[in-house]
Every structure is written in C-alpha cells, then in structure tokens.
Write a structure and sequence with these properties.
- It comes from Neotamlana laminarinivorans.
- It is an enzyme of class 2 (transferase).
- One of its GO terms (molecular function) is acyltransferase activity.
- This is Dihydrolipoamide acetyltransferase component of pyruvate dehydrogenase complex.
- Its EC number is 2.3.1.-.
- The chain is of the alpha+beta class and 537 residues long.
- It has three domains: 94 residues, RNA polymerase II/Efflux pump adaptor protein, barrel-sandwich hybrid domain (OB fold (Dihydrolipoamide Acetyltransferase, E2P), Beta Barrel), CATH 2.40.50; 122 residues, RNA polymerase II/Efflux pump adaptor protein, barrel-sandwich hybrid domain (OB fold (Dihydrolipoamide Acetyltransferase, E2P), Beta Barrel); 214 residues, Chloramphenicol acetyltransferase-like domain (Chloramphenicol Acetyltransferase), CATH 3.30.559.10.
- Helix content is 24%, strand content 26%.
- The protein has twelve helices and 27 strands.
- A six-stranded mixed beta sheet has the order 18-27-26-25-21-24. A five-stranded antiparallel beta sheet has the order 13-12-10-15-17, with no helix packed on it. A four-stranded antiparallel beta sheet has the order 1-8-6-3.
- Helix 10 crosses helix 11 and helix 10 crosses helix 12.
- The protein is globular.
C-alpha cells in the first residue's frame, strides 16, 4: 500500500527544502534505513532516511528543485502499484479500524494506568530535551549495551535532535537493564529511553508499563495516511564542503552511520582509511560508495581546467537554504532599522604590550578580539541605551549583557553568544569564544548557545580589513565592526612616531540609539581598550 513521503521539517526554522541529490531512482527497492535523498535546509545539507520499505514509485521534487515543508517529495509502495489517485490529489488508503484501535490502545493506558512503583534502585531514563526547540529525538548510536555496567558520567548514547547530534551522559550508576529505543528509532521527549538499576533486576513490567503511555514514533505503518508517514523524523547529518579525517576516539571507535558500516563490511573496506563527510567527520553512505584506495588516487592524472582567452561564461549556482535565511534576516534588518555609522580610531600600543604580558603566563591565551569583547561589555554597563531592543510600542532595556561574536562557517555566518559577558574575565571570555567558535564550525553548537544576544561584535581584522560596516544583528540595537591593527605614523606629545592603531565602526539603530549616545559609547570603549589594566579582573 503506497505511502506518500512529504518534505520533512529538518529544523525549527525550516520552511522549505531543496533536493540536493537523490540517492534512489524510480523503480529502486527501498529498505528501512536507506538514504533516499540529501535535503538542503536553511541550516545544512542533511541525509533524509526512509522509514518505509517498498519500491520508489514516484519522485515529486527533482534535484535542485525546492518545495515547501509537507509538500509531496516521493511515493513508496508495492512494485507496479497504481498511484494515479495520489498524484491527482487523492490520499493513500487507510484502515480505519486499525487506526482507531491503535489510537485507543495508546490513550487508554494513559488515563487508566496508575503510577508504577519502581523496584528498589531502579531508575527510568527518559528521552532528554537537549535544545529549547526539541520535541523528539532519534538514537543515532548506543555506546552501551544491555548488561553493561554504567558509571555516572559515562556516555550512554548519541542522540540526534532537530539541531545536532549530541552525546547523552548518564547521571546514574548501575547496570543497563533495558533499552527502550533501538538505533535509528525516534521518540518524543520524556519517553522511555533506557532503564538502569542493580544487575539481575526484572524490569520487564516497568518497560511495558512505561512504553504503554510513551509517545514513541516508530516506522509509519503502510496503512497510515500520507501525512503520518511524512512526519516520521529524518536522521540527519551535515555535509561539510570538504572531507575531514574521520575522528577516532581513544577507545578506537570510528564515527560511522549504521548503513555505512554495513556497506563497508560488504565491500571489505577498512573504515579507518575512509574520510568522513558527514556531521563532524562522521562516515556516511556516500563516503563508502565513493571510496578509492590511496594508491588508485595517487595514480590518477591531474586534471587542468582553463577557459579559452576571450571566452565569456556565466555559471548559475543554486542559493543554499542557509544563504536564503541569511539574506532574509539581514534584508529585514537593513530595510526596517534606520542604520547610522560612527567611526573611531584606537591607539593599540598599550593593548599590544598588555596582551604580550598576559600570554606569557602558562596556559593563558588572550586575543585582541577578547579584549574588544570585554571592553564592549564594560561599556554597555555604562551606556544601557545601547543594550536595548526596539519593539513597536516599547524599548526593552536589558539588565543582562550577552555579547554575540560573529563566526564565519563554510555555509555562511553564525553568531555564538557569550552569556553575562561583563561578569567574565578576559581569559574566561577567550576560552568561551574559542569553544563556541569551534562548535559552530563543526556544526555541533546548541540552539541556546546562539540565542539571546544583546550586542554583537564582528571582526574582520584578521583578514587585513582596516575598516568596514556591518548590518545590525536584530533584535540588537547596535553592532561593532573591528578592523585590523595597522602600524603607521602618529603624533604623540607633539612628535611623529610609529604607532599601532585600529579602526572601530559602530552601526546603530536610530530608533533606540541617538548619535550622541553612540558617540559616548565609543569614547568609553576607546578608553577601556587603550587602558587594558581597567579590564583585568
């Protein structure tokens, strides 16, 4: 019986998806767990896994085409099955009695089953909420098996959320008695994930009683309507622009998807020799299919590509969903917030000397950008008008100071947020920025680590850019653009000497920040940066 597969919602902000690549063609057999296609969202390119078995009967969106979430993506069913009714606006047949029975079996225990008393020492581990937008999670990998001893702090499993794949740490010690979800299965937050307790404890009653009320999302039955089939979550992995060596942990475990592992075993491929292109270097199906031994690669002749002199050529590259999201956000900011810009030049001689002294301390590393971020936080305390958000009827003054730091990633730009920046030391700010920037580039950053900023810093100085203007990162009222430190002649005490200066540009939303307020903020900021001793705490 045919199942309609709709365009899945692979992130909380996703409104449409683009099919980057189809890994199956019409007529191909599809097994549960096979990768159907690579879908490009506003966040990343993700592999979309089939939760159904059958034959791929129809492809609704061709490679490079875009469609809205919940629109027809494909149809899977029995070979030779007539799907003309579905293509003409009909729906897949559904067995009403079975659906009704299923509904009753799920609802009745929730209303009638009393709270269950757990055996002594037994702990039920439920699906955790690993992000503020997470409603369900998928078990990517179990790192423990039933019967294993679990210590507090051990990693139980890797959980795929709507944002990233995260390691889930155990907060209990004992023996893993029961696994409620197998690898690749999904469940709602707070559903049964595992049971931990004393070795040998019978927890079969606990598991069956708990799962009766849990909202576990299994593979959609073929009797269900198309919408239900489409809502089965897709297991996702990000696709970096270039391969990276596959990470191997200290215990020798290679990060690999179950399907890729199976293919590697069939082909006799050593996984430690394969470069992963999935999320954070994880090996996925395409890496096994495209794998060539090093010797074969070395023998391949180099290919030189050049254009004929005088030739005119234009290539159209499809805009990624992330680029579309960035364009939408920045376009809205630029054309709704009346921007104005203020420039100031800062003497960096003292900052250079102070940084050298600070970094001479063992295990200490502070950048000039860390100094700027700290100085901004201190200046915002003195100029609260800049630490605001415009609303149609009110201006919101924030008592907290959360500085966002713009970070370039392969697909665009993200802004990790340093929470309560004014309360952190220079070294703490430096450590936080490096940690969050690394997570952002590896696509492992959590949603709450990119939200809540009240002010933003964008630094292109490391690229040699001396001065530039930025578009305000709404709902902030201002953003600071930081240029390169330049050595040039300056006048000090009436003498021309060699000095080091840096240009700062403040973009302000004129609805909340007036020119005088912005100028006073920059003067205070300049004072802190030129006198780093004021920032050492």
């Amino acid at each position: 019986m045919a199942i309609v597969v709709n365009m899945p919602r692979l992130s909380d902000t996703m409104e449409e998806g683009t099919v980057a690549t189809w890994l199956k063609k019409v007529g191909d057999k599809v097994e549960e767990g096979d990768i159907l296609a690579e879908i490009e969202t506003d966040k990343a390119t993700m592999e979309f896994e089939s939760f159904n078995e059958g034959t791929l009967l129809h492809i609704g969106v061709q490679e490079g085409e875009t469609t809205k979430v919940d629109e027809l993506l494909a149809i899977i069913g029995d070979e030779g099955e007539d799907i003309s009714g579905l293509l003409n606006g009909g729906s897949a047949p559904a067995e009403a009695p079975a659906e009704e029975s299923s509904s009753n079996s799920e609802e009745a225990p929730a209303a009638e089953t009393p709270a269950q008393e757990l055996p002594e020492g037994v702990i039920v581990v439920t699906m955790p909420r690993l992000s503020d937008t997470m409603e369900e999670g998928t078990v990517a990998t179990w790192l423990k098996k039933v019967g294993d001893t679990v210590e507090e702090g051990d990693i139980l499993a890797e959980i795929e959320t709507d944002k990233a794949t995260m390691e889930f740490e155990s907060f209990q010690s004992g023996t893993l008695l029961e696994i409620g979800l197998q690898e690749g299965e999904s469940a709602k937050v707070d559903s049964l994930l595992a049971i931990i307790g004393p070795a040998g404890t019978d927890v079969s009653g606990v598991a069956s009683g708990f799962s009766a009320t849990a909202a576990k999302t299994e593979v959609a039955p073929k009797a269900e309507a198309p919408k239900a089939a489409a809502q089965a979550p897709a297991k996702s992995e990000s696709k970096p622009s270039a391969p990276k060596p596959t990470p191997v942990t200290e215990n020798g475990r290679v990060f690999v998807s179950p399907l890729a592992k199976k293919l590697a075993e069939e082909k006799g491929i050593n996984l430690t020799k394969v470069q992963g292109t999935g999320e954070n270097g994880r090996i996925v199906k395409r890496d096994i299919e495209n794998y060539e031994p090093a010797a074969a690669v070395a023998e391949s002749p180099a290919v030189t590509s050049f254009a004929v002199a005088g030739e005119e050529k234009t290539e159209e590259v499809k805009n990624s969903s992330m680029r579309k999201a960035i364009a939408k956000s920045l376009g809205k900011s630029k054309f709704t917030a009346p921007h104005f810009y203020l420039n100031i030049e800062v003497d960096m001689d003292n900052a250079i000397a102070s940084r050298k002294t600070i970094n001479a301390i063992p295990d200490t590393k502070v950048s000039f950008n860390d100094m700027v971020v700290k100085a901004c936080a201190m200046a915002l305390v003195k100029h609260p008008q800049v630490n605001t958000t415009w609303d149609d009827n009110v201006t919101k003054f924030h008592s907290h100071i959360h500085v966002g730091v713009a970070v370039a990633v392969d697909d665009g730009l993200v802004v990790p947020v340093i929470k309560h920046t004014n309360a952190l030391s220079l070294t703490q700010i430096g450590s936080s920025v490096r940690d969050l920037a690394g997570k952002a580039r590896n696509k492992k950053i959590k949603p709450d680590e990119m939200s809540g900023s009240t002010f933003t810093v964008s630094n292109l100085g490391m690229f040699g850019i001396q001065s530039f203007t930025s578009i305000i990162n709404q709902p902030n009222s201002a953003i600071l653009s930081v240029g390169a430190i330049v050595q040039k002649p300056v006048v000090k005490d009436g003498q021309i000497v060699v000095g080091n200066t840096m240009m700062l540009t403040l973009a302000c939303d004129h609805r909340t920040v007036d020119g005088a307020v912005g100028a006073q903020f920059l003067q205070t900021l300049k004072t802190f940066i030129e006198n780093p001793v004021t920032m050492i705490a």
